[in-house]
Specification:
It holds the Pfam family TrcR. The chain has 247 residues and is mostly helical. It has 13 helices and no strands.
Amino acid sequence: MNKPIMAKATAVWLVDNTTLTFKQIADFCGLHELEVQGIADGDVAGSVRGFDPVANNQLEQSEIEKGEKDPVYKLRLKFNPASVGEEKRRGPRYTPLSKRQDRPAAILWLVKFHPELTDGQVSKLVGTTKPTIQSIRDRSHWNIANIQPIDPVALGLCKQSELDAVVQKAARKKAAEGGLMTDDERRKLVSTEQSLEMEAEPRMPSAISGLETFTLTGGSQREEEQLPDAESFFNLPDTDEDDEDET
């Protein structure tokens, strides 16, 4: 079902100017019933100005009258060429300024726990760019040492239904191509509830970064080779023979 242009503003106008039920307005505008109730209570869209759907050729007045008489009647959107394709927007997802600083943490979580996702799918979920995703994949991001993986759903960057749909799509594609997930990749797949309860990974101090593969095995062997044998200390020349030669 197509939604009207400026759906939330339309819902504000219908709440203020009609006696339609919250469910009727929610179904017509493509919103949740509780969100419409929040608009009526003033908790949601308090600064949004109402948008008249009748004056803007989206709804007939007769439809409103039918809906007010019958609480189960569903309003029908009037055909408007300008509303065609309104739901399918091209381009990256818009991310509010207050949440843009959380995107690297969400990207790291997706890369770590859902490696089957492509850069394009991650980009659409959290509204970022492919170079940023690649920098986090190869750990060349300027702030990678301070980034902790956090579920994008918990950060409010995407919905759980959207994440589940993308993950299932990626899994189906990988299965169709004949590529099975490794045991390591399968162990990384966790739910949102589990990821929120996980402890942060321990970080190695920057002072010893790069020395995590350093071992003392080779050095100890070389030191043992260089040390002389203990018996060589007791292999002293025979003094008696030297004295006899001198005499």
